[in-house]
């Protein structure tokens, strides 16, 4: 934000021909490595298939939360992206069923976050059960995350976190599992980053 203010002030000074000092210059923060923060562990694929998606494992979880979780597993989306879907962002009748992550009615993490995510397997089944989205959690994604994590931890449906003895992984580790599956497919970096909603290193050419 400080960098944006500095750029705005520089533009204003030039356009107005003002000989004044930019109060926001030289206020940037240098990048530092947070050595106390460890890499988030992914949930193993076999755990996703044999535990989380085992018959009956999620039956006692609320319908919307259950569907949100199944979409997360096969799209790698952030919980807030799935919870915030509006009905017209859910394109089940298109040749390739997909959901549209858009900055409409909510703020996205960054410009790369806006994307179209194809639906397959358990994610497609879940969205067919909820073609209008998830109105209970549309403006309260934190509640969905809390409810799902509480359910999974209470029933030991998430693996233990080797970095935190006695603690179990959270649903955000599922996003890391999706990235691992993309890596295993040896996809071009551009496709992988587009699906994850990450910034592409270097300049973006073409429509993608």
Description:
- The chain is mainly α and 208 residues long.
- The chain contains eight helices and three strands, in the order H-H-H-H-E-E-E-H-H-H-H.
- The chain has helices at residues 2-16, 45-52, 63-75, 79-83, 121-129, 141-154, 172-184, 189-196, and strands at 90-91, 98-101, 115-118.
- Strands 1-2-3 form a three-stranded antiparallel β-sheet, with no helix packed on it.
- Strand 1 and strand 2 form a beta hairpin.
- The chain is globular.
Number of helices: 8
Overall structural class, as computed from helix and strand content, comes to: mainly alpha
Strand order of the largest sheet: 1-2-3
Give the termini distance in whole angstroms: 29 Å
Mean pLDDT across all residues, rounded? Answer: 87
Number of strands: 3
Report the biggest beta sheet as strand number plus sense, adding barrel if it closes.
Answer: 3 strands, antiparallel
Q: Which shape, going by the Cα principal axes?
A: globular
Radius of gyration: 21 Å
* Helix fraction by DSSP (H/I, runs of at least 4): 40-55%
Strand content: under 5%
Order of secondary-structure elements: HHHHEEEHHHH
Uncertain parts: none
Produce the secondary structure layout.
Layout: H1 2-16, H2 45-52, H3 63-75, H4 79-83, E1 90-91, E2 98-101, E3 115-118, H5 121-129, H6 141-154, H7 172-184, H8 189-196
Antiparallel strand pairs: 1-2, 2-3
Helix pairs in contact: 3-5, 3-6, 3-7
């Amino acid at each position: 934000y400080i960098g944006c203010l500095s750029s705005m002030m520089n533009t204003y000074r030039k356009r107005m021909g003002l000989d004044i000092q930019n109060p926001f210059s030289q206020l940037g923060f240098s990048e530092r490595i947070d050595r106390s923060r460890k890499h988030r562990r992914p949930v193993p694929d076999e755990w996703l298939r044999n535990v989380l998606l085992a018959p009956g494992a999620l039956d006692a979880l609320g319908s919307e939360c259950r569907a949100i979780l199944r979409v997360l597993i096969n799209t790698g989306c952030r919980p807030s992206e799935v919870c915030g879907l509006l009905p017209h962002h859910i394109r089940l009748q298109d040749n390739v069923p997909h959901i549209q992550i858009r900055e409409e009615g909510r703020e996205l993490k960054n410009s790369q976050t806006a994307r179209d995510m194809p639906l397959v397997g358990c994610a497609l089944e879940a969205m067919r059960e909820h073609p209008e989205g998830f109105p209970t959690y549309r403006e309260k994604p934190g509640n969905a995350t809390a409810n799902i994590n509480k359910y999974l931890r209470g029933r030991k449906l998430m693996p233990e976190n080797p970095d935190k003895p006695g603690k179990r992984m959270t649903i955000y580790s599922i996003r890391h599992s999706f990235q691992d599956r993309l890596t295993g497919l040896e996809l071009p970096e551009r496709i992988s980053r587009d699906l994850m909603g990450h910034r592409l290193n270097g300049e973006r050419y073409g429509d993608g």
